[in-house]
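Pasting as-is:
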Amino acid sequence: MTDVLILTHIDYCPPAHLAQVLQARGCSFDVLRVDLGELRGYDLERPRAVAVMGGPMSVNDPLPWIADEVAALQRLIAREVPIIGHCLGGQLLAKALGASIRRMPYTEAGWQDMQRHAQVTDSPWLVHLPEPFSIFQWHGDTFALPEGAQALFSSRWCDNQAFAWGDKVLALQGHPEMTEPLIECWLDDWAHLLDERQPSQQSLAEMREQLPEKVRALNQVAEGFYAHWLQLAGL
């Protein structure tokens, strides 16, 4: 049995720091490119935990593999496999649980401060988080909350930054998996997609300011999420 299944959708949205955490813990993992058809035929009874990474596409795009991935996630949810979704991955989880995903009137990008929902006092997904904390963002879509979900935190520009569903599903709108080289790669290759005149987007200089320190803090945020996720899987 494979310990962890990681679903990816493009080469520049890899598991990044998540892979480093799994390697350090000695967990075996498979990384599949769903957009290239690698999920077809995969035995969904094998993984003990699943992570779903990001991508530039929308869950609402007419891409044939999206329906296959949503169906796979529904099977994994039915198996009560611990699942964590990052950005597009969080949106795919929301869709698998029956919620809608919509385009925002702007793009949220850069380091954004998170605010916990006041009514959330006992979530095990949040016990490790400092106050305040930030998560790196780059998205133009947002998910609604599935029925029965618990909203966890929000940002100034996105009300639904994270939800828990049951005790084994965590959907995140941001990118806690980022590393310093991956952020630099995105800023080098995709800055032309940004418009720093939008208040929801940081400038490139702001994103790079004190980058090593910000990434170290982000890694700690991510490691808390991953530790609880793996604990649920008995890993």
